[in-house]
Write the structure tokens for this entry.
Amino acid sequence: MPHLQFELNQRLTDSEKIAFAEQVRTLFSDVMDTGTDHISISIREFDTYNLSIGRVKEPEKGVAVVNADIREGRTMEQRRTLTLGFIELLHKLKNIPVEHIYVTLTEHKGEDFHLFEKYLASWQTGEDPLAD
């Protein structure tokens, strides 16, 4: 159950949040070859100077930090495609300069992800982790 956390120093409308979350789920599902029902997304909004990256000299143009907790097993190509996809979505969402976006991927065993009814298995190509 990936937990995809997006932190921005800009405010979003509810409709922007809904559309963005749907785009993120679609991107993750397509790139990581999995279903969408288990994907969790957090969007956190901060004031301009409450989020920073060392190389960003003009935070008023936008800053975004992404932390994605994912199941291990994906290729470097999948992880890089996902990362660049996140960056593109954030840039399109609020015109945040791509140099102002930082993404961290953290990999976990499938059994580290728990729902009420079960924990997830290790990732496999084309799987739907919530199917019985």
Summary: The domain at 3-112 is CATH 3.30.429.10 (Macrophage Migration Inhibitory Factor). The chain has one domain: 3-112. The chain has a mean pLDDT of 91. Helices lie at 14-32, 76-94.
